[in-house]
Specification:
By secondary structure, the protein is α+β, with helices and mostly antiparallel strands. It has 4 helices and 9 strands.
Length: 204
């Protein structure tokens, strides 16, 4: 009887694993980026340099802020021009330089941050002030850009998988709810902090 019970649990586990794999594969297929040239070039370099520190301190002259390097897909928490923590992130499926609602791109620029709030889909969400007034005057459109965690709960155990591919609609996403909780608490401690979303290849 005990063997049958163990066998049933194993069968259920295998079925669940197969269903999970199908879901993951489905999401990976759906996450194929709209801008493959940028993504493929960036993907190879960031995987090769996954655990390496950047050549130049990303928090230099950034005060207390969040800095996002979109090419290497990293988010940095900076305090008084010094890096506190670093996270790997996913960005928009369309790449970078958002200008239009629905283009699935992550905006580049300096933006204010709003108060972190609870989110049904992402546990926590920190709104990013895109578009700025200056961008609106240039005709930029779009809304709902922010920093958040993984959409799918089953990615919690494999946090790195949810930042291995660019899957968001223009937001910046970290790999786990735990990481997002820390960033949210940090943002609450520093309500005047801003976010620099950069294409670091063209930084001066």
């Amino acid at each position: 009887m005990e063997k049958n019970r163990v066998g049933n649990f194993l069968s259920i586990g295998i079925i669940a694993l197969i269903m999970l794999s199908i879901l993951v594969v489905s999401e990976v297929v759906n996450a194929i980026p709209v801008d493959p040239a940028y993504w493929q070039e960036s993907y190879q370099e960031r995987v090769e340099n996954w655990d390496k520190a950047p050549a130049v301190d990303p928090c230099l002259k950034k005060g207390t802020s969040i800095v996002v390097h979109t090419y290497m897909h990293r988010l940095y928490l900076c305090e008084n021009n010094k890096m506190v923590l670093r996270y790997n992130v996913a960005i928009g499926r369309g790449g970078i330089n958002k200008t239009t609602e629905g283009d699935l791109k992550t905006p580049i620029g300096l933006y204010p941050l709003s108060t972190p709030r609870a989110s049904t889909n992402y546990s926590m969400f920190i709104p990013v002030g895109y578009p700025t007034l200056a961008q609106k005057k240039l005709g930029y459109t779009g809304s709902g850009i922010g920093i958040h965690g993984p959409y799918f709960r089953y990615f919690q155990m494999w946090g790195f998988l949810s930042v291995l591919f660019d899957w968001t609609q223009g937001c910046v996403a970290v790999g786990t709810d735990f990481e997002m909780e820390f960033i949210s608490n940090w943002a609450t401690r520093f309500p005047d902090a801003v976010v620099h979303i950069l294409d670091e290849r063209h930084q001066t």
